[in-house]
Design brief:
Layout: E1 6-11, E2 24-29, H1 30-34, E3 53-55, E4 58-60, E5 62-65, E6 75-79, H2 81-87, E7 92-102, E8 114-125, E9 131-137, E10 144-152, E11 159-166, E12 169-178, E13 192-196, E14 202-210, E15 228-229, E16 237-241, E17 244-246, E18 253-254, E19 261-265, E20 268-270, E21 275-279, E22 285-287, E23 290-294, E24 312-317, E25 332-335, E26 338-343, E27 347-353, E28 360-363, E29 366-369, E30 377-379, E31 400-403, E32 406-409, E33 415-420, E34 426-428, E35 431-434, E36 440-445, E37 451-458, E38 464-467, E39 473-477, H3 513-522, H4 525-528, E40 539-544, E41 550-556, E42 560-563, E43 575-577, E44 580-585, E45 589-594, E46 598-604, E47 609-612, E48 615-617, H5 626-630, H6 642-661, E49 674-679, E50 686-692, E51 696-698, E52 708-711, E53 714-719, E54 723-728, E55 732-738, E56 742-745, E57 748-750, H7 752-755, E58 764-769, E59 777-783, E60 787-789, H8 802-805, E61 809-811, E62 814-819, E63 823-828, E64 832-838, E65 842-847
Length: about 850
């Protein structure tokens, strides 16, 4: 069921109320959102209707059971349309007990305050060959509810959709399409078509899931299947919350051509053609969403046409309207999103303002663009569209405004940001780091008063290029690293059995810290067979089905209870009898607490990730004794106790540096005391690291507070509009900084490569710093030269979590690991060929061999 889908919702940091990139995230289960405020439960009386109830703000006069009260068949053998028609009346909530309900055609609601509520796993099945709207209410009936119902379109001849147009209110929740909509009869049926006739109306689409929308190249000249269509009939406000739409051929959310408001929050989108999301103007926004474009993750039929059927965008702002009607007010917003474009044909822009778009403001958003010749942000020239000549150039403003945003990735050619004919645009407090060749930073054409201020623009080409334009640039840094996006919401492939015609083309999915960690450990056989279950204390066993589903059964020698640990939800359908549990997991997590040992464990139907106390384990190992599985735990050298690992590894690092320095002249005297300061130039943080061969302490004139830590000879910190100063002896053996601040050595400004005494044999440094984030971050690194872990710069707190105690894997120029509250650092030679991260740790890169 859709309710089992795991989700995450970001939460603003109490320390960071201005909404900067240093936000915090809390994991939420999708099911936690389902218990909406204002829902009153009423039991159904045996043999008749129950009393009045209110659900999601809709009041019902009676509650009926479609099976007990109207004889509907829950086995899927007989159609239920007639029973529904008999049960339906104004003010009726129709409940569907767990089962499969066969339809013989479209059902058209003709009542106000009518609801369909599934109890347990409930599936509606259209007839074979059906290509139409399964539930179709387009006559203005009001206050309709559809909740906890899946729609099975796995028959390859079948496609279905839901259409609701109400006066003031509708609510759709926990609806999942099983299968892929591939049939077409003059235009493929879209999944959801929604509208409200009243400007004061409010509609909600929550936890709607369609992981196999249609096909990637199914644009069909604009007639392909759409995930959500909200058009000109809508005048009210429609919210999409915690939804998951993938692989639609004609936009996942085509929600821009409406005078009403569309608000899309806490949702995930992947590999939808045309656009992942289209929104319009004032009152419409996208917030806290993850969007991915990565052809390697596509699971559907092989594309037939990659030349004419593709035009890939992330979010498109499009305020085109019908003929002879007023323009939609300007003011669309994109807030706190993660947008990733890795691999796709015919890229247009990850944020794109179309010729009919008016304006957009983008705040606190991270964008990764690896698509060649594709801008991360694109404002095309405003104007009419050749196939809609009646749509004139939209009225001003036409601005694009970026605040506190990050653009990273390996895209080659063109520019990261393209702005054309967009007066009063600006880019401020942003970070642009594009590593591809011939890549410019910001190109501004035919625009006035466009400012680029207090930003990093680290590209291979021109940083800022004005053409027939005016504006101010100030506070521009041309080196440094930028925050990268997270893919923690969703990012998993749907199980193959849900659509047997599809062959998944991806074998690697990085969706969350938990799944990354499991993948990390399975690269090392010894690591997967470790368990740290304590027979005398309470342990946590989790079965993670986000990546792969499965049915499981296991037994323990002690007590066993269901748990919501690690983001799990307690599912009544999973069975617990004494010390034995059996159940199934798909798209979510099941957890249990237990004492004693796991005595037996069996899996079928997939390969979900199994963890014990946060560590990935091989379920086959539970046939061994606990003593056998614990023998490798003492070999964990990933972080462990801070005192042991820091002191030992610092000594090793210093020895290496001293031997390198023997033939080189040091820039500092071993006995002399020097000062090193990091001066922030704005409220945007500068994150820094350094290590010395002697001693180091806070300078008297500095006030570090809680924003910096000194670990023996290593220092880490973050400074805003202030100065952090230190006194040290010996040499600076390692140093790195990311952000707008400057570095002062003995009062003189220096770059990191000028401050270090001797360039190490492995001159480049990559640091994954989890100490400034509340998230768990998984990562993968690959370089084309040598790579080794820097024990001197890698740290963990004394009370390190299980994540920080996990051993990182380093071999053949590759590293895979996970960090929570600690720091992982690597030295390497050559170029980074692959770097993936899931989480919000700070990433710092420094090339000391400049």
């Amino acid at each position: 069921m859709a309710r089992k889908l795991a989700r995450e919702q970001r939460q603003q940091s109490a320390d960071n109320e201005d909404g900067t990139l240093l936000n915090r995230r809390d994991y939420l289960r999708m099911g936690a959102y389902a218990a909406a405020a204002g829902t009153t439960a009423t039991a159904v009386a045996s043999g008749g209707a129950a009393a009045a109830t209110t659900r999601h703000g809709i009041s019902f006069d009676r509650v009926v059971n479609i099976v007990e009260d109207y004889g509907a068949d829950p086995t899927g053998n007989e159609p239920v349309n007639a029973a529904i028609s008999e049960a339906a009346s104004d003010g009726t909530l129709i409940t569907f007990p767990e089962g499969t309900y066969q339809f013989n055609g479209k059902y058209i609601p003709r009542n106000n305050r009518l609801g369909f509520l599934g109890e347990g796993d409930v599936t509606f099945v259209p007839p074979a060959g059906f290509d139409d709207l399964l539930i179709d209410s387009w006559s203005g009936y009001d206050e309709l509810l559809i909740e906890n119902i899946d729609i099975d379109i796995r028959d390859e001849t079948t496609t279905a959709g839901i259409r609701l147009k109400c006066q003031t209110k509708f609510h759709i929740e926990d609806v999942e399409y099983l299968g892929r909509g591939l049939t077409a009869s003059g235009g493929q049926t879209s999944a959801f078509l929604l509208a409200l006739e009243s400007e004061d109306g409010e509609g909600v689409l929550r936890n709607a899931v369609a992981k196999k929308g249609s096909r990637f190249d199914g644009y069909e000249g604009g007639n392909g299947r759409i995930g959500v269509w909200i058009g000109w009939s809508n005048k009210g406000t429609i919210r999409l919350e915690q939804c998951d739409f993938r692989e639609f051929g004609n936009n996942a959310c085509y929600t821009s051509r409406t005078p009403g408001n569309v608000q899309i929050v806490d949702s995930y989108f992947c590999n939808n053609n045309a656009s992942q999301i289209r929104i319009s103007g004032e009152g419409s926004y996208v917030k806290n969403c993850v969007l991915e474009i990565d052809f390697d993750k596509y699971t559907g039929p092989t594309p037939i046409d990659t030349e004419t059927e593709f035009g890939i965008r992330g979010i498109s702002v499009d305020q085109g309207v019908q003929q002879d009607v007023p323009a939609i007010p300007a003011g669309a917003e994109i807030i706190d999103c993660d947008i990733i474009g890795r691999n796709a044909p015919q890229g247009i822009g990850l944020i794109n303002v179309s010729p009919q778009g008016r304006s957009v403001t983008v705040k606190n958003t991270r964008i990764q663009c690896d698509l060649p010749d594709t801008p991360a942000v694109r404002r095309g020239e405003p104007g009419s569209i050749s196939w809609r000549p009646y749509q004139d150039t939209p009225p001003k403003p036409h601005y694009v405004r970026l605040e506190n945003c990050s653009i990273t990735g390996s895209a080659e050619g063109r520019e990261a940001v393209f702005i054309d004919s967009a007066d009063a645009s600006y880019i401020k407090d942003c970070c642009i780091q594009q590593t591809g060749s011939d890549r410019d930073g910001v190109r501004i054409i035919n625009s006035t008063d466009v400012d680029v201020t207090n930003s990093t623009v680290n590209v291979s080409g021109t940083a800022v290029d004005y053409q027939n334009s005016t504006g101010e640039t100030s506070g521009i840094e041309q080196s440094g690293t930028c925050p990268v996006p997270s893919t923690d919401i969703g990012a998993s492939s749907e199980p193959a059995e849900d659509d047997s015609t599809d062959e998944p083309t991806t074998t690697t999915t990085e969706s969350s810290a938990e799944s990354d960690t499991a993948e990390t450990d399975t690269t090392d056989t010894d690591a997967t067979e470790e368990t740290t279950a304590d027979a005398d204390s309470e342990n946590v066993l989790s079965i993670n089905g986000v990546e792969s589903p499965g049915e499981y059964e296991f037994s323990v020698s002690g007590d066993l209870q269901k748990s919501d640990a690690n983001g799990a939800t307690i599912d009544d359908n999973d069975s617990l009898s004494g010390s034995t549990a059996n159940g199934q997991v798909e798209g979510g997590i099941d957890s249990y607490t237990f004492t004693g040992e796991i005595t037996d464990f069996s899996l079928s139907g997939g390969e979900p990730t199994i963890t014990v106390n946060g560590e990935a384990v091989n379920p086959d190992s539970f046939s061994e004794t606990e003593a056998d599985t614990e023998e490798t735990t003492s070999n964990d050298t990933g972080s462990g106790d801070e005192t042991d690992t820091t002191e030992t590894s610092t000594e090793t690092e210093s020895t290496d540096s001293s031997s390198s320095a023997g033939s080189s002249e040091s820039s500092t005297d071993e006995k002399q005391t020097h000062t090193l300061a990091f001066a922030g130039t704005s409220d945007a943080p500068t994150v820094y690291y350094f290590n010395v061969s002697g001693e180091v302490a806070e300078a008297e004139e500095s006030s570090l507070g809680l924003d910096a830590n000194v670990f023996d000879t290593t220092v880490e910190g973050a400074v805003g509009n202030a100065t952090h100063a230190y006194e040290f002896t010996g040499e600076i053996t390692s140093i790195a900084a990311e952000g707008p601040g400057i570095i002062l050595l003995d009062g003189e400004r220096v770059h990191p490569h000028e401050a270090i005494a001797t360039v190490p044999e492995l001159p480049n440094l990559l640091i994954i710093n989890g100490s400034l984030s509340d998230d768990v971050t998984g990562y993968r690194i690959a370089v084309d030269g040598e790579l080794e872990r820097s024990d001197a710069l890698s740290t963990a707190p004394e009370d390190a979590t299980t994540w920080d105690r996990m051993e990182d894997t380093v071999a053949d120029g590759k590293a895979v690991g996970v960090v929570a509250e600690g720091v992982d650092a690597y030295r390497f030679k050559g170029n980074v060929t692959r770097f993936r991260v899931c989480g919000s740790a700070y990433i710092t890169f420094e090339d000391l061999d400049k």
